[in-house]
Amino acid sequence: MIKNYLVNNAHRYASKWLVLAIDIGLVFVSFILSYLIRFNLTLNFATENLLLQLPVICGVALIAFLLTGSYKGVVRHTGVRDVYNIFNAICLSSILAITMVIFNRKMGVLEGFTIPLSIIIIHSLISFIALTASRYVFKAMFFNLIKQFKPTKNVLIYGAGEAGIVTYNALTGHSGSTSKVIGYIDDDPMKVGKIINGVRVYGREELNAFFIDKKNIAEIIVSIHGEDSRFLKELVEELVEFPIQVKIVPPVENWINGELKVSQIKQVQIEDLLNRVPIDIRSPKIMNELNGKSILVTGGAGSIGSEIVRQIIHYKYKSLVILDQAESALYDLQMELKQNNFHNFIPVVADIRDKNRMNVYFQEHKPDIVFHAAAYKHVPLMEYNAYEAIKINVAGTKSLVDLSLSHGVEKFVFVSTDKAVNPTNVMGATKRIAEMYISCMHQEQKTKFITTRFGNVLGSNGSVIPLFRKQIEKGGPLTVTHKDITRYFMTIPEASQLVLEAASMGEGGEIFIFDMGESVKIFDLAKNMIKLSGLRYPEDIDIKITGLRPGEKLYEELLASGENTLPTYHKKIMISKVRELDYTDVRSMIDELCISNMFFSGDTVRLMKKIVPEYVSKNSEFCKLDEPGEKEKPENEKEPSSPRHLSI
What we know:
By secondary structure, this protein is α/β, with parallel strands linked by helices. The chain has three domains: about 1-145, no CATH class; about 150-270, Rossmann fold, CATH 3.40.50; about 285-455 and about 490-520 and about 555-645, 3-Layer(aba) Sandwich (Rossmann fold). Helix content is about 45%, strand content about 15%. Strand 5 (about 215-220), helix 9 and strand 6 (about 245-250) form a beta-alpha-beta unit. The chain is elongated, with a radius of gyration of 35 Å.
């Protein structure tokens, strides 16, 4: 109750007029002290002169305080800026007092009135110290009173650098904080043993279960910037073994108005461990490419499509058409953009398979660049719905490619997937066939067709991390298809940025593949997510192995057989050198596939395997369509590939 009263009525104690009155009172006392100091703590001076001078000095100080506004600061949030304002006020007050004394000596306006200049200087120093110290004393008293009436938790800050000190200030300078910083942890031996803000710096080797228990540590906040994701991943994996919460400070660019708030310090999420180095969204090359252009984004409300839109919206394009058949998702994106004051876009609810309707949109908006991100992407679903996979991933893409040619589109950028590399499922095969059709139509030399391949994206619809999060909320178990299954991950913003970058550098006919970093073992990912949730594996939540799903690979492959890569000016983007195709035969077979699919032919998957000879089914009913010689060694007996560049 006392705490609530203090917090709710703090504005009464922090009234600017009360602060001004206290400041004048301190000036009054400081002036008396300055005389005592000047005369060696004796009264060997004319006290009647002092009584005459006091109201003048207080009046001058009042004018200075009113002009500088030094009394308006919130005392319980006193900082460097407030001290600077006090310094300005004292300097102004001293200048006014000295000017008045010198003027009076020359003109003799007030006969007998004078103040020794040494007194004014001593008074200025004492006043500055008194005013500054009073604010910090009141600030300390306020926070100590507040914290006496609420429970506290002991906290360690990992990182004794600038970011760690900022974190300390954010925790200790917030009245609502329940944290008590016990110490810093740092890897730098030059800092270990030092004291920062009255808090000791410990070495990383001192951090063990005994230390955690002895200091009663409830939380560790990781506050280091500039380290790569591998270091952060190893560090957090080490910390989550202790029975404590692990939190992380966001990057500097995410701080609110350049200042860290306590509310921004969040519990570590698995995305923080998989996240990659932030990239610059505003690229001059992309800016030149999109400037003044009409742009169409299909699948614009999906995971990748919507992020492509969010990045394009910052450039100076002519018009932007966002097309998707998902009405609700498109509406949400529309509202998001409008709330962020972006209005130069056209949301369109449409199906890319409706060629007549799409033709109308091409005629109406005349796009210069098409980003084709619309697709069915879920492997197990498409394995049982081959008709739909072919209809949208192949026929839908074919329709857009044909319309782009007939309407003179400058560039067509196709978002493909790693599943197109040596496909083992229907979805991957349809994306590879779409790539092949794009390569065929590039031979027309009318539109520049560009294909981009990249890996799994963090947080995309249906990805493993949101699934694990939901399973943890329900109490588990977490389901993993195989104990050795691995995947590559990329953030949605980075993937979309690289798509735009590839579009700007592409001259047509290329398949761009992205550097995906290192693969992640899904079983280890699941264990880390359990620990980061403050739970224990397997005591609190277990992990269940369910077996590989139809069409699912154990290890993602990097490049299809016969392919290699060439570097580009961007270190994360490579060009795939693909094998030659018989364009006439491939185009004819793709036309046949689309027609067969229209008539619900049961032979479409067999025809897909003919178009894509490397398509060998895994864990699927379509395995029977493969020739005996095409059966590969069981995938769980293979070793994962080690190269860094993954195409998906």
